[in-house]
Fold this sequence. Notes:
Layout: H1 20-38, H2 54-75, H3 79-96, H4 109-112
Helix pairs in contact: 1-2, 1-3, 2-3
Amino acid sequence: MAPVTDLPSNNVRDLSDVPSVEVISKAAIMLLSAAADRLGLADEDPDNSPRRDLDEARRLITALAGLITASVEYLGPHAGPLREGLQSVQRAFREASAYPDEPGQGPGEKYTGPVY
């Protein structure tokens, strides 16, 4: 096997060549995907998903809300779909909670406002 240093570097992008909107969008998508996974949304029966962890989902959704809210002016056409994804996981969290938070108190709602 060739050492890592001998691998061609044409598949690796220098971070300075990546536009900020792409970095922000990829980070948001990673947070969104992780939140959906922690809500059990990838499973046939989310209520009985072994991956469901609402505490972890709350943290991920709050981080996602903060990132999107702070970056919205830079996201251009990406802002709408990312906001919709955020609202979807916020609603899914509310539905999954045995004792839903009061409106405005759910994950990320201090950044986005109440989600119903």
